[in-house]
Specification:
This protein is mainly β. The chain contains no helices and eleven strands.
């Protein structure tokens, strides 16, 4: 069974940057696509970005295109989400996902 642990969240001013990490453990941790989702208070969880197991294919929600970058380091079993030009509307709990498994989430708060 895979375990996903997110880190890197925090409080940042609008226009700032954060890098989230998701460390995966378990069998065949590298041979799966991974994704980031987020959930703001009172809203449904939404897709943010995804990356194929090789890292060659990525996909982004329109709201983060050009500002967020997803990447992975298979040697470290870790997926990253580099978030630049952050906006207050990016405030949410960010979750890592692989298949049907979710991490516990990490809070990102962007102040105006």
């Amino acid at each position: 069974q895979v375990q996903l642990v997110e880190s890197g969240g925090g409080l940042v001013q609008a226009g700032g940057s954060l890098r989230l990490s998701c460390a995966a453990s378990g069998r065949n941790s590298n041979f799966y696509g991974m994704g980031w989702f987020r959930q703001a208070p009172g809203k449904e969880r939404e897709f943010v970005a995804s990356i194929s197991w090789s890292g060659s294919t990525t996909s982004y929600a329109d709201s983060v295109k050009g500002r967020f970058t997803i990447s992975r380091d298979n040697a470290k079993n870790t997926v990253y989400l580099q978030m630049d030009s952050l906006r207050p509307e990016d405030t949410a709990i960010y979750y890592c996902k692989r298949g049907s498994c979710w991490g516990q989430g990490t809070q990102v708060t962007v102040s105006s």
